[in-house]
Amino acid sequence: MAASLLVAACAAQASDPPGAEYAIRWDPAEGGPSSAAQTFAKLEVTADKKGDYEVGYRRPSAPPPGLPEGFAPIVRERWKTGPNKKEYELTYKQRGPSPSPATPTLDQWPCPVGKTKDRKDEVDVSFRSLNDAARAYSRSCTVESKTAPPPVPAALKAPPAKCTSTMTRLKRGELTVEEWHLRSGRTLIEVSRSGAATDQDFASFQADVARKLIETHGIKPLQASMTELASACGT
Fold first, then answer.
1. Which parts of the chain sit beneath pLDDT 70?
2. What is the phi-psi region of residue 80: left when phi exceeds 0, alpha when psi lies from -120 to 50, beta otherwise?
3. Residue among 20, 22, 91, 26 nearest 53 (CA)
4. What was the pLDDT predicted at 235?
5. Domain containing residue 35
6. What CATH number should be reported for the domain holding residue 39?
7. What was the pLDDT predicted at 83?
8. What pLDDT, on the 0 to 100 scale, is given for residue 15?
9. Structural domain total, the chain
10. What is the Cα–Cα distance from 110 to 66, expressed in whole angstroms?
């Protein structure tokens, strides 16, 4: 029933279902796998990609024109760290309780952090228990650089992040596991999988990931999103 409501809410937007990110996160201090590598092992999947990052969040005090009612904006700075690779990403994201308005379309929408084709509309589905999932609707865009961090537009009036977190990401296909270390010393794990906002993909993540982690490996799902947790500096 809950998954059906997810699809119904988006049906008016397009004939094809929108993209979705299904996620579940926990604090290993309360039980469950304690690292990204251990989580992949418990899910019986082998990762084939790895990256280490530093991440910070900024909250704009001057949201861009046209921000839909009920939507909250945030800016994320993410730097890939390591001896041989440097990659910088600047992402603007706005999240709200309903799908983004039909106008402007995603392609016509002016990205608040710069010109880019890297943009998406998505349904964020966060499992707070096996049978309870919170949903938010987001629109985002990302500017990338391999030489220096892209500047945050002054018009957003987004002061520097109060803190940054380090994050290790393991991936295989659409499955991603992130191991976060917040400034407070708290460690958090997030498992996510990209898919479509359909009953089938909802049920698949629920069975393949959420059920296994909750019932077999003893995690206690967190209620807040990773953006909320990391931007609050682990408090």
1. 1-15, 84, 234-235
2. beta
3. 91
4. 54
5. 2-231
6. 2.40.320.10
7. 72
8. 67
9. 1
10. 10
| pLDDT, position 9 | 47
- Is residue 5 left, alpha or beta, with left meaning phi > 0 and alpha meaning psi from -120 to 50? alpha
How confident is the model at residue 174, as a pLDDT?
A: 97
pLDDT value of residue 16: 85
Residue 10 pLDDT: 47
| C-alpha distance from residue 138 to each of 54, 81, 92, 212 (Å) | 23, 27, 10, 27
Find the length of the chain: 235
Helix H, strand E, coil C: the string for 139-204 is EEEEEEECCCCCCCCHHHCCCCCCCEEEEEEEEECCEEEEEEECCCCCEEEEEEEEEECCHHHHHH
- What's the rounded Cα separation, in Å, for the pair 182 and 179? 10
